[in-house]
């Protein structure tokens, strides 16, 4: 009879994968991930059918964590620019507090390992964020490849702000603000 799976062990594997992928990219070995989680490599495969399944679960896990962080204190009744600034600030704070998770999301987002099913599942997370985009992002950025382009602008500018904030903590808020204003001018309806 198979032993029951433990949610704590699954989370430990995902946290270990976050660290490993954040540091070494998607090429991080399952042996390294298992070792960081304090389990045998065979145990990893009791929880995830293969490495691709682990990477997809990790991407979803990190997107959920990021989304939860961005939603803390979110008030959709505020005007769109204030709402967007809140999301921006929460994203930057999460990334600075979780550099391995931020790097892992970045690695996974550009890999070919994330399945369309996982991407669809991520899309269903936090509909409030999609509604906010509908209210403040220029229409030409809301569909198809242009939406992906707009997301890339948002994330690259946020990553740049994080990088400068981490290097110059005494000026961190200035970099966060400058990044937000650049993103807002590039994407928002207010600039038309």
From TrEMBL:
UniProt keyword Lipid metabolism, yes or no: no
UniProt KW Zinc keyword: no
Ranges that cross the membrane: 12-34
Residue ranges the record marks as coiled coil: none
Keywords, comma-separated and alphabetical: DNA-binding, Membrane, Transmembrane, Transmembrane helix
GO MF annotations, alphabetized: DNA binding
Top-level division of the source organism's lineage: Bacteria
Domain HTH tetR-type span(s) in chain numbering: 7-66
Family annotation (InterPro entries): DNA-bd_HTH_TetR-type_CS (IPR023772), Homeodomain-like_sf (IPR009057), HTH-type_TetR-like_transc_reg (IPR050109), HTH_TetR (IPR001647)
DNA-binding region: 29-48
Name used for this protein in its record: Putative regulatory protein,TetR family
